Amino acid sequence: MIRYLSQRALQAIPTVLLVTILVFLMLHLTPGDPAEVFLGDRRSTPELLENVREDFGLNRPLHVQYLDYMGNALRGDLGRSFRTNVPVVDQIANRLPWTIELAVTAMGLAMLIGFGLGIIAALFHNTIVDLVAMTVALIGISMPIYWSSLLLIIIFAVNLNWFPAIGQGGVERLVMPAVALASVSAGSLARMVRSSMLEVLNQEYVLTARAKGLSERIVIFRHTLRNALIPVITILGLMFGNLLGGAVITETIFARLGIGQLYVEAVLQKDFPLVQGMTLFIALTYVIVNLCIDIIYAMVDPRIRYD
Amino acid sequence: MTDSQALSAEIANIKQNDQAYKFIRRIFRSRNVVIGGFVLLIIVFMAVFAPQITRYDPAEQFRRNRLEPPSAEHIFGTDNLGRDIFSRVLYGGRISLQVGLFSVAIGLSIGTSLGLIAGYYGRWVDNGIMRLIDVMLAFPGILLALAIIAVLGRDLQNVMIAVGVSSIPVYTRIVRGNTLSIRETEYILAARALGLPDRRVLFLHILPNVMAPIIVVATNGIAGAIIAGAALSFLGLGAQPPDPEWGLMLAQGREYIRVASWVTTYPGLAIMITVLSINLLGDGLRDILDPRLKI
């Protein structure tokens, strides 16, 4: 077990290294002189460009720049925003709580709805209940977050006046973005749970459990559900990633000042230090989350042994 | 050719036709394929024949008819510049379908090739390619596309590249997995023993056998690419005004959501119906081609 875990952790190292190199190279891969890219839409003069090169060390060899960038990053310094001059790390730290609040709520909602729909659909396989549940799931998947968000605003903020349309803080401002964000993940989770449940329900040990006269409740909860949920764990990582990606859109629509909204703003304003810092931060977070999920998976399913 | 040979050839021919017939019949008996395919056909038709269906140019501004609710004159109403929303939705279909197709073409061709190569050659080639894929997977959801846009700059063409490139891992992983198992089958060993060049083995003997899951993934991929493409345009990173792009139309209609909800309702419905029909089609194809695939 420990060998598998450490192996899996070691495997993540080249990924992380490559991610840092790619993120560092973003500025240099952009067509044009890096100094000009840095300046963005501002008018550039030769002196200004020279100053930028000097200040940001853009005239040094690439590998020196990279090592410097990484050295600073390891010390928690991702540079300063080119627009606001605020340290990138501070900006991320300020925005992070709002995104965590949104993502965690949406994840909880998605799991509640996804597991509920999926389990019910599997138990009533090939009935009208199944059809309705799966239609709801399919609509959830097919509905773009930006449109469901706008619909929620039209219905619940404009017409019914139940919730404030935009902003952050308090449950009333969290409900709509969380529901919109959760809908897509809930749909795909429901489909996954359903097919996983159906597969387990066909296993011989479920037949045995029924044959020896166990009550349906015990068959479902003790024998089926627990085994059906194992493969579902693997897509939780993907779900978390989609929630992070979706947060970019929901935060923009609901004007929540979170990480996603900051990222879009940084890309729109070509604020490169901010884009780089955030890309690095998000990618590393995601790699770590996936690592944790792999570990949980190995711990939950005793059949998985890689040694 | 003797009579018996001719007869067995005839029988083989009938069998093959019969199989093809059965396959086609299964396709047409699938409710999902028929409904999804039919709706999608209508959407494609409306996008292609947009100039014949509507008499308004999508960029034409009727300055006196701004933000008009749906009427006989403008069946979906007009937007803040007095443009006919119905025309814009039809022409927008062209853009979104193009984004869907081109993005998938990029992801599919590169992803499949990488998967074939990784699965077939194994060892360090496999290792190298899969590390690259791991790196791409480190950027969650739409964020890889966003990062690519940040580098390439914002316009519609870059949206297709960004969405396409970020879909590469899906294809590579599924093709690699299938190639790994097919590589060990006897007919591939036979093909290699005959001395066929790798390229022939890969593309003529392995590729056709991994097509089923690819078709399913690619179909759903078109739906995903349409959603992602419109999302990027919605965020201001893709199509630019005055393009009649669905995501962009939603973004522009946002400001008038309190007084004119139809400006956002129709492009939103258009995206959802298009995506829903493609997903239905994909689900139906999955049930027929590859029932074990869970997506």
Q: Helical stretch count of chain A?
A: 12
| The CATH homology group name of chain B | MetI-like
β-strand amount of chain B: under 5%
What is the correct CATH architecture of chain B? Orthogonal Bundle
By secondary-structure content and strand pairing, the structural class of chain A works out as mainly alpha
Given helix and strand content, the structural type of chain B is mainly alpha
Report low-confidence residues of chain A grouped into runs of 5 or more.
none
Number of individual domains of chain B:
1
N- to C-terminal distance of chain B: 49 Å
Total of helices of chain B: 12
Percent strand of chain A: under 5%
Global geometry of chain A: flat
- Report the helical percentage of chain B: over 70%
Shape label of chain B: flat
Order of helices and strands of chain A: HHHHHHHHHHHH
Question: Explain this structure to me?
Answer:
The complex is a heterodimer of chains A (307) and B (295). By secondary structure, chain A is mainly alpha-helical. Helices cover 77% and strands 0% of the residues of chain A. Chain A contains twelve helices and no strands. Chain B has one domain: MetI-like fold, CATH 1.10.3720. In chain B, 74% of the residues lie in helices and 0% in strands. Chain B is built from twelve helices and no strands. The termini of chain B are far apart. Chains A and B meet through helix 1, helix 6, helix 7, helix 8 and helix 10 of A and helix 5, helix 6, helix 10, helix 11 and helix 12 of B.
Question: What's the layout of helices and strands?
Answer:
The complex is a heterodimer of chains A (307) and B (295).
Chain A: H1 2-29, H2 34-39, H3 46-56, H4 62-74, H5 88-123, H6 128-142, H7 145-159, H8 175-201, H9 204-211, H10 216-253, H11 259-268, H12 272-300
Chain B: H1 3-29, H2 31-48, H3 50-53, H4 85-121, H5 123-137, H6 143-152, H7 156-166, H8 168-183, H9 186-193, H10 198-234, H11 246-253, H12 262-289
Helix pairs in contact in B: 2-4, 2-12, 4-5, 4-7, 4-8, 4-10, 4-12, 5-8, 6-7, 7-10, 8-10, 10-11, 10-12, 11-12
